[in-house]
Design goal:
Shape of chain B: globular
CATH topology of chain A: Rossmann fold
Oligomer: heterodimer
Helix content of chain A: 25-40%
Radius of gyration of chain A: 19 Å
Distance between the termini of chain A: 41 Å
Number of helices of chain B: 14
Strand content of chain B: under 5%
CATH class of chain A: Alpha Beta
Number of strands of chain B: 0
Structural class of chain A: alpha/beta
Number of helices of chain A: 8
Structural class of chain B: mainly alpha
Largest interface: A-B, 27 and 25 residues
CATH topology of chain B: ABC transporter involved in vitamin B12 uptake, BtuC
CATH architecture of chain A: 3-Layer(aba) Sandwich
Largest sheet of chain A: 6 strands, mixed
Strand order of the largest sheet of chain A: 6-7-8-3-9-10
């Protein structure tokens, strides 16, 4: 996926300015930024849900009109209606709808693909559960199964870690690594710096415009994070991992980072 | 007992009423499931009320009130969706304006007809016992059309109702469906005007579906239960109306409400009684 001088937003107002990304096949890319920084806008533009104001995104060589069946998407979990009367299997099957046009019923092949997608995320046993009866981690895995059901080559995940405990986060990341070993490219947005520094190949720091893009070890420094979150952050490198610590004296109330890595402690 | 059950159907007007009421209940119960899931009940109510304008125009000029209602309901449904999407007006505000304006125009027109209270009463509260074969045929045509559209777009309606963003990302024509569903709801209310009248259409639209949501877990099962509740309410309401000499539309609504209350209290999974005892 490559993004060239992308400007995007709503009703002609740019939320996102001058973004340039070059993402290689098989990469895992973490998009970092505070709330309202344009992370979701970038993902939605890549999905074709928002038209760019300027610039372009090309995915797998296809410009403009996107090959939908090549892209899988996981929306923010809190935007999904978990009270809706559908089962785990129903949701996974929805992932196949992009392959079937209007008026076409789903086939046996679709159901088998949805089932094997559920097996991949270890949710097959719970396939007849209503989605409202699932735990947070299980819900995330159902959404992943739906995104995987049509074997996409690019996965776009909007804050997949939010609200998950550390163990579940790592299980999810392990699953994503497994998909990458099969050739999939993963782009995820997150607030979790340690996840990006330890698990991603590239990091993209956004705050309405692109602050930095590159290898996490090159990009995640105090200067960049300060510009991204609008506050002074102290970086500590430990066993090859980067942790950010916040100086509360320097933070202003408009741009506080809302979540720092779970194992970091504020030093005020 | 047998006489109690068979007596009503010796009359042709009761046979027509049964057909018209059951068709209305069938189509309302199916579309009602989407209405309840999407919280569109008030929208259906508004389209029905505003249709009074179209019915009055038709009535005034001696045309079929059915087609009058139909001709009003479709643009009214589209207008509600369009205003709320484009004009920075909240959807319940758009609904309220369409609701009141259509109803007001209807009342003004009806007031120009001599002896208008009796006719107005029939439009507002339905008069299924006076339904003609021609009207039964029209209701069947409209109901069949709506059911056909729902079957054709079932997969897409399910997906957009559940998750509009994701379905848009999957290439499903979400905008088309966001206009289609309100139009289907509007046309459904037209199909039920004879059975229960303008004021009570909302009951047929939401009560069976809401009852079914208490009794079943998955969407297809909810639809089946909704249709059962709708049909049982119509038949039982007609019996109640015939034997107790009560107005038919309200009788159907009262029976449906009774079933809803029973489900609310005694549903195996969601019943208040069991919840209280736990």
């Amino acid at each position: 996926m490559s993004v060239r001088d992308l400007w995007a937003g709503y009703d002609g107002n740019a939320v996102l300015e001058a973004v340039n990304l070059e993402i290689d096949r098989g990469d895992m890319v973490g998009i970092i930024g505070p709330n309202g920084s344009g992370k979701s806008t970038l993902i939605k533009t890549a999905l074709g849900l928002i038209k760019p104001i300027k610039g372009e995104i090309s995915i797998l060589g296809a410009k403009g009109s996107l090959e939908r069946h090549l892209v899988g998407y996981i929306p923010q979990a809190e935007l999904v209606d978990w009270d809706f009367p559908v089962t785990v299997a129903d949701v996974a099957l929805m992932g196949r709808y992009s392959l079937r046009g209007l008026f076409r019923r789903t086939t046996k092949e679709d159901r088998e693909a949805a089932d094997s997608s559920l097996e991949l995320v270890k949710m097959f046993e719970l396939r007849n559960r209503l989605i409202g009866e699932l735990s947070g981690g299980q819900r995330r895995r159902v959404l992943l199964a739906r995104a995987m059901a049509h074997s996409p080559e690019l996965l776009l995940l909007d804050e997949p870690m939010a609200g998950l405990d550390a163990t579940t986060q790592h299980q999810l990341l392990d699953l994503l690594d497994q998909l990458r070993s099969n050739g999939a490219t993963v782009v995820l947005s997150t607030h979790d710096l340690s996840c990006v520094s330890s698990r991603c190949d590239k990091a993209c720091c956004l705050n309405r415009k692109q602050i930095a893009f590159g290898k996490p070890s090159d990009v995640l420094n105090e200067q960049v994070l300060g510009d991204t979150f609008g506050t002074h952050l102290l970086m500590v490198h430990l066993d090859g991992q980067a942790y950010a610590y916040q100086h509360h004296t320097h933070s202003d109330e408009h741009s506080e980072p809302e979540r720092l890595p779970g194992n970091g402690h504020s030093n005020d | 007992m047998i006489d109690f059950l068979l007596d009503p159907w010796e009359f042709a007007f009761m046979q027509r009423a049964l057909l018209a009421a059951c068709l209305a209940a069938l189509v309302c119960s199916v579309i009602g499931v989407f209405v309840v899931l999407r919280g569109m009940g008030f929208m259906g109510d508004a389209v029905a009320h505003s249709s009074l304008a179209g019915m009055s125009v038709a009535y005034f000029f001696g045309g079929s009130v059915f087609w009058g209602a139909f001709a009003w309901a479709v643009p009214a449904s589209l207008a509600i969706t369009f205003i709320s999407r484009k004009a920075k007006v909240k959807v319940d505000t758009a609904i309220g304006i369409i609701f009141a304006s259509g109803f007001a125009i209807g009342i003004i027109l009806m007031s120009q007809v001599n002896n208008y209270t009796a006719d107005l009463f029939a439009l507002l509260f339905g008069n299924v016992l006076a339904v003609s074969w021609e009207e039964v045929f029209l209701v069947a045509l409209i109901s069949g059309g709506i059911l056909l559209v729902i079957i054709m777009f079932y997969k897409e309606l399910l997906f957009t109702t559940y998750d509009a963003t994701m379905s848009a990302a999957s290439g499903i024509p979400v905008r088309f469906l966001q206009y289609l569903l309100p139009v289907l709801v509007g046309v459904t209310t037209v199909a039920s005007l004879r059975a229960v009248g303008i004021v009570l259409v909302i009951a047929l639209l939401i009560t069976p579906a809401a009852t079914a949501a208490l009794l079943a877990r998955r969407l297809p099962a909810i639809m089946v239960f909704s249709v059962l509740v709708g049909l049982i309410s119509s038949v039982a309401g007609l019996y109640l109306s015939f034997h107790a000499d009560l107005p038919t539309g309200p009788s159907i609504v009262v029976v449906a409400t009774g079933i809803f209350l029973a489900a609310l209290l005694f549903s195996p999974s969601n019943g208040l009684i069991w919840q209280a005892r736990r």
